[in-house]
Amino acid sequence: MERNGLDPLGTEQAFPEEGSIQAERAYEWPSGVNTEHGILRVLLHASRLILDGLEQIQGPVEPPPPRRSAFLSHAKADLPPRRSDSLVHELATRMASTNYGLKGYLDEIDTLSGWPWRRQFEAAIERNALIAFDGDAYPSRPECQRELLHAKRARRPILAINAVRDRQSMSFAYGGNLPVVREPPVSEFAMDQLMLDLFAETLRTELWLHDARTVAERAGLQNPILLPRPVELADLAFHVLDSRHQAGAATLVYPDPPLAPHLRELIDALRPSTLSVQALSEVG
Known about the structure:
There is one protein chain. 48% of the residues lie in helices and 12% in strands. With 284 residues, it is an alpha/beta fold. The chain has a five-stranded parallel beta sheet with strand order 2-1-3-4-5, sandwiched between helices. The protein has a three-stranded parallel beta sheet with strand order 6-7-8.
């Protein structure tokens, strides 16, 4: 079969009605970007389509799927002197100027005056993914800690960027169990790669939740708590906080593999008697 030189991946057949992908193939890819970046951009559009389709298949779910945007959690002390060198601002700008379906929530731009800013942050985190720019100052800033903990409590997709330049005076005890990427250079290709990394984590989260709901329903779990990342001690505290006005037993389900024995011992030592903690493979 003869291949179209402008369509080496066969995207015209795979996505015949997706205009943005066709524009990448026909106009921008051959002349405006190299092949590697062209493939990356097609993957971004394809990821958006998959997430949109998954959302339509699932219908209303709890927690609701994240909108196609990300809360950009960062410490002002970690920003470089020049805005053009800022990964945070360049990523927000790239998100706003492309049609991948992603938007960045940046506090200095998206916070509305006249409303409590912390509640605005919490509401934005609850309906979006979160990108944590883990720089030198980030772990020591209480508001950054609040943002990351709130995203974990709301079971949002989270991507951490290791942006340490010199050293961190302390580490944040609840910053683990997250996918981490190295801080990239400030370029269009790197910004697109970060967006694809976020799409990948969002897809992993949504697909796992979709499977976990099915397994939990078949197993007859009455009150399943579906956690799309490895369980940690903070999740036990979240359960206690969130169930203060609820009665009955619950089962916290997390992705495989099951916890190692030494970690299981810690979880069992502090686990409320009304809470069962199981890997998804242990539910069935």
